[in-house]
# Entry
Amino acid sequence: MPTCARRFFFTLVLSVSALCIRAHAAEPTNVVIIFIDDQGYNDVGCFGAEGFTTPNIDRIAAEGMKFTSFYVSQAVCSASRASLLTGCYANRVGILGALFPSSKNALSHDETTIAEVLKAKGYATGIFGKWHLGHKPPFLPLQHGFDEYLGLPYSNDMWPVDYDGKQHDPEHWKAKRYPPLPLIDGDQTVETIDTLEDQDTLTTRFTERAVAFIDKNKDEPFFLYLPHTMGHVPLGVSEKFRGSSEQGMYGDVMQEIDWSVGQVLEALDRNNLADNTLVVYTSDNGPWMNYGNHAGSAFPLREGKGTMWDGGCRVPCVMRLPGTIPAGSVTNNMASTIDLLPTIVEITGADAPPLPIDGVSLLPLLRGDENANPRDEFWFYYGRQLQAVRKGKWKLHLPHEYRSYEGVRPGNDGHPGPYEKGRIGYALFDMENDPKELRDLADQHPDVVERLKAIAETARDELGDAGVNGSGQREAAKVD
# Structure
């Protein structure tokens, strides 16, 4: 080939390549968030899980980023979910604890969810799994920005069934407190989940709808939110995974969850969407440890669900976005579910919510910038109480009582054991060198204690504390 012809050929190839790159860069970024219930820090293969394997979740880490200091806002169902979807501490939006069928509050329509942010930009939006932010029709997902919904309106143990799967007598307190557990499609109850065998079908059902949603919306941008009901007790697993793990029932459930993740990844691959889809996998809080072999593990962290020790609120998290997140990267920097909304806003170019939020964009961190540290501070609330604050490597516990799993025998095979009650005063921990929160260094670093006490006062001024309101708190919706 003559020299001038070769030059023209290579110039043409480079021009076409540049056009392809620009076209790819211009493609909207899809968003997939997979949110697991009660999965502990240790319950993923790449975080050290034993007795079961999670190759598909591990694949997200291998092709993206693993977060080793990723926090939820509160170690309990509804509060955690409100924070993920709104980018706010739960105390800012007034959703605390776990909502019940009798609850008289719900996520306010004044709050802007990730679904609403992306829907305004032309995204299709779907949720398949556990909602838990208001079970009455005016407050279901379709009224908070989602186009499609199949799932449970609250936790799968809020039903009139005992631990062995038998329906309670109508006079039993649980039968009086809980109606039949509804499975909702759109805004309509299509059936009830009445037995443990019904629970066995949930992971597969939600996965099939999630895959169908991807296939249907492959030619337009979409937001898929897949908040599985598992591994919250009562555990349910399909026959294809029952008995598949060394650990037992909980391990079987986690392996089916991993299969579900694999189905989502396969759907993205099949539709040539993997390169322009942000995939986030994480958990709503740590393990419910008094359920023994039906609970996960927070090792090496202290305590579990229902506490703001790191075992309760520090969860496994992996993210993937090819071309943005360097493959195989690991960050020890703090990040949180409250940071997902602003990160997604920056990645997609969507408009930020009109009301103040607490999250920060993680995009510089995701890109692998060595100097990026968007979140250097975190406030640890449980219910209305500020229980700890963290700045950099230092975490200061404030005086409080807490649920404890230490010193008590857990239950087994779906039955719970008791709780203990723990108490702590001011206590300072170096989270880099003592992630188990065992060595109180308050006496050795009084200056650090005072600096973190000042941060606690800032948090109280903004979001309140037990018995005291903050200037930035907003009200949840009132339910008739």
Remarks:
- The radius of gyration is 23 Å.
- The first helix runs from residue 3 to 26.
- The chain has two domains: 27-375, 379-478.
- The mean pLDDT is 94.
